[in-house]
């Protein structure tokens, strides 16, 4: 029995309550209908990169145990937009979720199961009792131990019922594009039609050869079809496709119907300078997000290659938390061959003239990386891996799922930092030193739709960014369905366009294909299209308010609060104590005055906090980390050489309200229960 995940208490599972069910063919499910199955509740929200990681972690288990295991996604939204049932249905389709999903917009089921973080997993046995409660990512190995135990136990008791589950597939979305992610302009002479014909042939290719390519073309990541599509400047003419359209990872010929190359939800892409491309042997770098890799595409011969990334998600393979007690992380080059370096959900890429490298928004670990196409060197540019909004020197800064990048005329890099609903900037000096600054945004749980002074302006989960001809910055404000503008000169925010369906990227079009004035090109993901949007002479001023994520507040008493984060290494792993205590807590608060003492970063998973009686409520930001390694111990009790190591991490934002009869203890589960 795996002591890691099994709870010894017999706790009856609460009923599943929400607004609606998806992927059930219109049927409403309850626990009685699921009796006899092992039920895995996955509390998620579709903005959350960690939740998307868990979806992929669970796929092999769902396939292997399809006759006994029923996964139920409980969608408990963080952002206002995520409570929209139409947006949720699109997300379920976009991420190819093949299990029932409960729409829980009021967090009723979330509260019933005392979930405190996205993602949270709860396992219910065939008799309807909770047997496991897990926070964060990386629990597939523990579940792979627990599920066979439950199968054996309940087959012996006669309480396990084998057979098909309640999943019913929805009607698929059709069209050339399916949830496109990002777009890239290919100038005349750089597109596939510039070579000896790597298009998909037919009339479209003929049209391109007769002058359409003279205007250039657009390369779009057709994310939902796991491929790239080259479009003419009308956004309708298909000039070529790259990738077989089958989810996976494979290099080789990528062009047209004979493609064997495979991608897995590709996102950002960048065209290398011609001299760099000539040395590297490929033209385009692609953020292949779910493969956790950077890929290369040669437009001359239509071949795809893998440039960096082992395919193993970073943090699930890493050693101990590389952060010192002042929360300063490691920045600089990562050793080893680029194909041996672990990446995590690269989401966008841009060429940096100052760094002479591709800059990568590494959404899965809340950091900014770089990749040198000539040498293959991979480096961490900014971010210490902690999730949140903190400016300063690159190695101390916090990001939260950076998802969009753009370079300005001075060589600075603008960042759409999605989970903090923020616009950030990497200010790069002539020596290559990076400092992180914030233009818009307040924190992890602050968002809205408000123009005006940047300090009070609000975005909602932006995914794209570009620099306009006048030096101002346009932002794809995804969950507000808008394109916003930030003016660095006077630090104000305005709205350029709205009424869009989850715009995921925005680019300036200088081709004058639709008139004499430059236009914006917007990737409208949930409408499965790329469109032109004019840059208005007079921008709108919108104020629909600032919002905070509303979650249940925990009553706590002023004064000492004893914090315990419980963690037990999975069966077959041992805490990695080769560099000292392999566990760590990072604690801060909003407002900062809430914590009289006990904040900061230090080793260990136990700490006493002192809460100020002068602050009535706030949020405790808690990050817990623990490192463990595989394999049996050697005779002297040491971890064997070359053991695979894993970093477990969870970030909590715990809303608290101070009252005299509140709790004096706070217990969180990173891994394991009593």
Automatic annotation (TrEMBL):
Domain of life: Bacteria
Gly residues bias spans: 192-208
InterPro entries, A to Z: 6-blade_b-propeller_TolB-like, NHL2_NHL_rpt_dom, NHL_repeat, Thioredoxin-like_fold, Thioredoxin-like_sf, Thioredoxin_domain
Keyword vocabulary terms for this entry: Repeat
Pfam families in UniProt: NHL (PF01436), Thioredoxin_8 (PF13905)
Chain ranges of the Thioredoxin domain: 5-152
Region (Disordered): 189-208
Residue ranges of coiled coil: none
Protein name: NHL domain-containing thioredoxin family protein
């Amino acid at each position: 029995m795996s002591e890691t995940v099994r709870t010894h208490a017999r706790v009856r599972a609460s009923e599943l309550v929400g607004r609606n069910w998806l992927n059930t063919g219109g049927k409403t499910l309850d626990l009685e209908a699921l009796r006899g199955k092992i039920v895995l509740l996955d509390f998620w929200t579709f903005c959350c990169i960690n939740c998307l990681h868990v979806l992929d972690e669970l796929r092999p288990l769902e396939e292997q145990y399809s006759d006994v295991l029923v996964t139920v996604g409980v969608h408990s939204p963080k952002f206002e937009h995520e409570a929209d049932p139409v947006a949720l249905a699109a997300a379920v389709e976009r991420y190819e979720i093949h299990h029932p999903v409960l729409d829980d917009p009021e967090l009723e089921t979330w509260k019933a199961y005392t979930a405190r973080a996205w993602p949270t997993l709860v396992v219910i046995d065939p008799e309807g009792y909770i047997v496991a409660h897990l926070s964060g990512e990386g629990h597939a190995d523990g579940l792979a131990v627990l599920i066979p135990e439950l199968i054996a136990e309940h087959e012996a008791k006669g309480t396990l019922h084998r057979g098909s589950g309640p999943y019913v597939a929805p009607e698929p979305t059709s069209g050339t594009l399916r949830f496109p992610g990002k777009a890239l302009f290919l100038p005349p002479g750089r597109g596939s039609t510039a070579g000896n014909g790597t298009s998909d042939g037919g009339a479209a290719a003929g049209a391109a050869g007769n002058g359409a390519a003279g205007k250039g073309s657009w390369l779009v990541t057709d994310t939902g079809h796991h491929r790239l599509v080259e479009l003419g400047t009308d956004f309708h003419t298909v000039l070529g496709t790259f990738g077989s359209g089958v989810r996976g990872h494979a290099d080789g010929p990528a062009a047209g119907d004979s493609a064997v190359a495979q991608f897995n939800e590709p996102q950002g892409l960048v065209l290398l300078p011609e001299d760099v491309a000539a040395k590297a042997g490929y033209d385009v770098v692609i953020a292949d997000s779910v493969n956790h890799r950077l890929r290369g595409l040669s437009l001359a011969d239509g071949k795809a290659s893998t440039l960096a990334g082992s395919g193993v998600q970073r943090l699930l393979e890493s050693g101990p938390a590389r952060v010192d007690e002042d929360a300063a992380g490691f920045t600089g080059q990562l050793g080893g061959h680029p194909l041996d370096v672990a990446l995590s959900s690269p989401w966008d890429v841009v060429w940096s003239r100052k760094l002479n490298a591709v800059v990568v928004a590494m959404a899965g670990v809340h950091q900014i990386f770089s990749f040198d196409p000539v040498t293959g060197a991979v480096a961490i540019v900014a971010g210490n891996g902690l999730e949140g909004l903190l400016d300063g020197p690159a190695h101390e800064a916090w990001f939260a799922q950076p998802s969009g990048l753009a370079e300005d005329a001075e060589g600075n890099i603008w960042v759409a930092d999605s989970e903090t609903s923020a616009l950030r900037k990497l200010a790069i000096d002539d020596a290559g030193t990076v400092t992180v600054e914030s233009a818009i945004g307040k924190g992890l749980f602050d968002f809205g739709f408000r123009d005006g002074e940047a300090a009070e302006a609000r975005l909602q989960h932006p995914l794209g960014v570009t620099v306009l001809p006048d030096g101002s910055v346009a932002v794809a404000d995804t969950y507000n369905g808008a394109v916003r503008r930030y003016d660095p000169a006077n630090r104000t925010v305005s709205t350029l366009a709205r009424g869009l369906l989850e715009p995921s990227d925005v680019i300036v079009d200088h081709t004058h294909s639709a008139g004499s004035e430059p236009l914006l090109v917007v990737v409208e993901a949930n409408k499965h299209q790329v469109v032109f949007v004019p840059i208005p002479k007079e921008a709108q001023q919108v104020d629909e308010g600032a919002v905070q994520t509303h979650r249940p507040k925990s009553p706590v008493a002023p004064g000492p609060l004893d914090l315990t984060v419980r963690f037990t290494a999975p069966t077959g792993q041992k805490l990695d104590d080769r560099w000292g205590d392999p566990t760590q807590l990072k604690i801060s608060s909003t407002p900062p005055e809430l914590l009289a003492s006990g904040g900061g970063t230090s080793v260990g998973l136990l700490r006493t906090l002192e809460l100020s009686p002068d602050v009535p409520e706030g949020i405790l930001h808690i990050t817990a980390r623990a490192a463990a390694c595989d394999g049996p111990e050697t005779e002297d009790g040491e971890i064997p050489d070359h053991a695979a190591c894993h970093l477990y991490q969870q970030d909590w934002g715990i809303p608290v309200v101070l009252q005299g009869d509140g709790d004096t203890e706070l217990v969180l589960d990173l891994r394991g229960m009593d």
